[in-house]
Write a structure and sequence with these properties.
- By secondary structure, the chain is of the alpha/beta class.
- Helix content is 49%, strand content 12%.
- The protein is built from 25 helices and 18 strands.
- It has a seven-stranded parallel beta sheet, with helices on both faces. A five-stranded parallel beta sheet has the order 15-16-14-17-18, sandwiched between helices. Strands 7-10 form a two-stranded parallel sheet.
- Helix 5 links the parallel strand 5 and strand 6.
- Helix 14 packs across helix 15, helix 19 runs antiparallel to helix 21 and helix 24 crosses helix 25.
- The chain is flat and about 165 Å long.
């Protein structure tokens, strides 16, 4: 089992390297053919990946068998057990020194190697930034590996070129035991994105009018797809070429303007604007290092990757030619998949309220018939207005077409009782659903389509499959809702809901009694036949979820919203912005403070109640003790009456006489004399 060490396996490049290595059969990129038996045996041997992480609280990537701590002894021990060591110094500045320390530590242990080792330093083309052209008269001639001894780095990347030189030098000591390579990579793209992530993110959100181009944008940026970069490193590990310095770039030599414009057109508004260096550095996502990298201006060409490496390219022609795939990778890697919802239901069922709450929860686009039509008309009017401006012929032709469409719309509206025909409404909705914002974040259709026919026309698939053998879908998967919600309620419930609305809310809307009853009757008429909107979705196995709104006792239909969010699942976006996060923290803090205040008041109330209860119990106990004592005294007094009477009648007279006799006689033992007297004169009581 061949073992590979990769640093920072939870970073952009490290994660992809680990993934590619773990799925690569050892030696599979070699040019030499192998016999069937050897090939069959080797097919079972894949690279085993171990590595470090930037944050050990993160979950270990599935492609990594073991995570190594960054302590010096543990790190060296792990690398000593590996056949291939790949150190990426592009992910952060701290890795530059770590790479050199690792290479030096291994070099000192050459005598203790149990098997030969290959050390690959993954660097960047920033170490070539200040290199002068071979021919001053031909500045557009690209640099190749043969020019690597003449390379001059960007002033802020001198430490990187020093590491490159040291790594190459250490590999010359004992080539049979310790081989070293440097792979100088172009700016990586693909997957979840890294250096270009700011542009992808801004384009995806669509909140800015244009994507920023730093400076003039004429600088040529060498690029490489992160998958191709990983394949190149794997090929180096397998082939161990004689060339020790390898340039890893694709065939494209695109300018910054071309790249940013391409991203904007395929993910954002399609607009770009130039900003100054000072303006760029004010953007939080663009620090000095990122700015330096994006400012690179180099024409480079990889020789060994064309002639010696054997792998299947993911994007050999560059980002522009493969932008559709790159955008898909970006969305899938980041989990930025659109959420498409359709909310149906009778009038007054709360469709718009639920749709609005869903849009707020998931950051989706709320599509209401009136808003979609108004936006489409406004867009046509703006296009038509350009006919009066001094623009090119193309703009003039587009303006004329827009004006013709407006004329047709006005004519159609006049002929149809102030309503637009379905064909125009469906056209407006189709354009809206296919727009970048709806394709990026998703949407909530609010009460449209209303009929089976409208649904069929709106979601009909008008495109032929790219693969002739692939089955043709009946619907357009890009705009078909994945969740359909039907808010159900009886007519009496809906009428009662409308009647309970304040007059100020109902006045001037379509919820007046006459208009509401008319709309309700129209809805019921459209949803009694077999061919209803819900039937259309059912036929396509997008089964609607029916929710009885009468069972919701909350004031803002929160119970219905909770059911729907459980069906839809978690949001698929970047989460809250910094402003939203601060606002959420403020709200959370206010709730916590309010909760603590209420808890304090409740505790004080309980303490007061407990104090009062204790006092009441004390008083009650004292009263009960007093009553018991009084009762005991009364009982004792009642019990003492017969004894007292007996003593007064039979004992006291004789006792008094005896005491008198004692006083008269004055005997020596008065007590004995009294006893004898009482005994002799004891009265007989029957």
């Amino acid at each position: 089992m061949a073992r590979v060490f990769v640093n920072n396996v939870d970073c952009y490049i490290g994660e992809q390297l680990a993934k590619v290595f773990s799925n690569t059969v050892v030696g599979s990129t070699l040019e030499e053919a192998v016999d069937d038996d050897e090939g069959s045996q080797r097919a079972q041997v894949k690279y085993e990946v171990v590595g470090t992480m930037t944050d050990y609280d993160n979950e270990k990537p599935a492609s990594v068998v073991e995570v190594v701590k960054k302590e010096e002894n543990e790190l060296l021990a792990a690398m000593m057990q590996c056949d291939i060591i790949v150190y990426d110094i592009t992910s952060s500045e701290t890795q530059v020194e770590d790479c050199l320390l690792a290479c030096n530590a291994l070099h000192e242990q050459i005598a203790n190697f149990k098997s030969p080792k290959t050390f690959i330093c993954l660097s960047s083309v920033m170490t070539w930034c200040k290199t002068k052209p071979n021919e001053p008269d031909e500045p557009e001639q690209p640099f190749t590996e043969e020019d690597y001894r003449r390379r001059k780095p960007h002033p802020n990347f001198k430490s990187e070129i020093n590491v490159e030189k040291q790594v190459i030098k250490l590999g010359k000591t004992d080539k049979t035991r310790f081989l070293t390579y440097v792979v100088a990579a172009g700016l990586p793209y693909g997957g979840k994105e890294d250096i270009f992530h700011y542009f992808f993110k801004v384009a995806w959100h669509g909140e800015e009018e244009a994507l920023n181009i730093i400076g003039t944008g004429e600088n040529i940026i060498p690029t490489i797809h992160v998958q191709d970069l990983s394949n190149i490193v794997t090929s180096v590990a397998d082939a161990k070429p004689k060339t020790r310095y390898i340039v890893a770039v694709d065939d494209s030599m695109n300018s910054m303007t071309e790249i940013i414009t391409c991203i904007s057109k395929n993910l954002g508004t399609g607009n770009v604007m130039n900003i100054t260096r000072e303006e760029a550095l004010l953007i939080p996502e663009i620090n000095q290092r990122v700015f330096d990298i994006l400012s690179v201006n180099l024409r480079m060409e990889g020789t060994w990757i064309k002639e010696g490496a054997k792998f299947e390219w993911a994007a050999e022609s560059g980002i522009l030619e493969n932008i559709a795939t790159v955008v898909t990778e970006y969305k899938e890697s980041r989990g930025l998949l659109p959420i498409r919802i359709c909310v149906m239901g009778p009038p007054a069922s709360g469709k718009s309220l639920i749709a609005s709450q869903l849009c707020q929860h998931y950051k989706l686009h709320h599509l209401k018939i009136a808003d979609v039509i108004a936006a489409a008309i406004e867009k046509l009017e703006k296009q038509a207005a350009r006919a009066e401006s001094e623009e090119g012929e193309e703009d003039d032709e587009a303006a004329q077409q827009a004006q013709e469409t407006l004329d047709l719309l006005n004519e159609s509206k006049q002929e149809n009782n102030d309503r637009y025909e379905d064909q125009y409404i469906i056209q407006f909705f189709t354009e809206k659903l296919m727009s970048m914002p709806c394709q990026n974040q998703g949407f909530v259709l609010d009460g449209f389509p209303k009929t089976y026919s409208q649904a069929k026309q709106l979601f009909e698939n008008k495109e032929e499959p790219e693969d002739e053998d692939a089955p043709r879908l009946e619907y357009n998967a890009k705009i078909m809702p994945e969740v359909v919600i039907s808010l159900d309620a009886e007519d009496e419930f809906l009428k009662k809901r409308i009647m309970n609305l304040p007059e100020s809310v109902v006045a001037g809307t379509h919820n007046t009694e006459d208009l509401f009853l008319k709309r309700l009757a129209e809805f019921r008429a459209l949803n009694t036949d077999d061919q209803t909107v819900l039937n259309y979705f059912d036929e396509l196995e997008v089964h609607p979820e029916h929710i009885d709104i009468a069972a919701d006792t909350s004031s803002n239909m929160s119970q219905v919203l909770e059911k729907i969010t459980k069906t839809v699942g978690k949001p698929r976006n970047y989460g809250p912005t910094e402003e939203e996060r601060l606002e959420l923290e403020r709200i959370s803090m206010e709730k916590q403070m309010k909760k603590e205040a209420l808890e304090k008041l409740e505790m004080q109330r309980k303490e007061e109640e407990e104090k009062k209860e204790t006092q009441r119990r004390k008083e009650e106990w004292a009263n009960r003790v007093k009553e018991v004592k009084q009762q005991e005294e009364e009982v004792l007094q009642a019990q003492s009456y017969p004894l007292r009477n007996y003593l007064m009648k039979h004992v006291m007279p004789t006792l008094n006489q005896g005491l008198i006799e004692v006083c008269k006689v004055r005997p020596e033992d008065a007590i004995d004399y009294l006893a004898e007297y009482l005994f002799e004169h004891n009265p007989q009581v029957d």
